[in-house]
């Protein structure tokens, strides 16, 4: 299973899997900092800030990222000419 640096990070991660509160006014709110997002997907990506999770890992050097696009950009440094 995954490991988290503290209890708060685990709780935020658990909320992502157990369901987020119904959005008020069409916005999705972060349970930790109350920041609001237009989509649940954006909120989930934001929650990675609070959990410290970096699910996208470079297989070449081990560096991890919160977003797949950032990993793809990073991979360009490993291209051998």
UniProtKB/TrEMBL annotation:
CC annotations in GO: nucleus
Domain of life: Eukaryota
Domain C2H2-type: 28-55, 56-81
Molecular function in Gene Ontology: DNA-binding transcription factor activity, RNA polymerase II-specific; identical protein binding; RNA polymerase II transcription regulatory region sequence-specific DNA binding; zinc ion binding
Keyword field: DNA-binding, Metal-binding, Nucleus, Repeat, Transcription, Transcription regulation, Zinc, Zinc-finger
InterPro entries noted in UniProt: C2H2-ZF_Transcription_Reg, Znf_C2H2_sf, Znf_C2H2_type
Keyword Lipid metabolism on entry: no
Pfam family, one: zf-H2C2_2
Compartment(s): Nucleus
Membrane-spanning ranges: none
Family: Belongs to the krueppel C2H2-type zinc-finger protein family.
PANTHER family: ODD-SKIPPED - RELATED, ZINC FINGER PROTEIN 208-LIKE
Name of this chain's protein: C2H2-type domain-containing protein
